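User: My collaborator sent over this chain with a note saying "see what the structure looks like." That's all I know about it. Can you take a look?
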Amino acid sequence: MIRDVTPADAAQIAAIYNYYIEETVVTFEYDLVTDEDIRKRIGKVQAKGFPYFVYEKGGQIIGYAYLNNWRERVAYDITLETSVYLDRNAIGSGVGSILYQELINRARNINIHSLIGVISLPNDPSRKLHRKFNFELVGNFRESGVKFGKLIDVEFWQLIL
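Assistant: Without extra context I'll predict from the sequence alone. Here is the result:
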């Protein structure tokens, strides 16, 4: 089931996210996050009035999603960046699609004009997810990050709501 995040969820969210830090190029962070780091991030997103929620099954969080500023300048307030993360064992289960649909619905409810999905390459599952929801590829920043000693391209996908 989907429910709004609470600070008590921070430990499970940190465990999910730390997998992506340690094992993937999905995030460009290098340092593992703590429960307190996640609590602060939750608070910042919620303070802006943006959605942040989890997918819970059997008392365990198996995925989470939120919207946040794409850029900080006020003129960009109509456009938000999407974030969806799944427990590694839930990848391919359909939970990512459920969370993404909920993000889109909640973005519409707060009168957001467009959403930006940012994909570090390679990541074919994320590309497929964005296509499923009719996002369009609008840009590719070549070699814009480095992780695990490799230069990483980053794609930007946009959905006009």
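A starting point for your reply to your collaborator: The domain at 2-160 is CATH 3.40.630.30 (Aminopeptidase).
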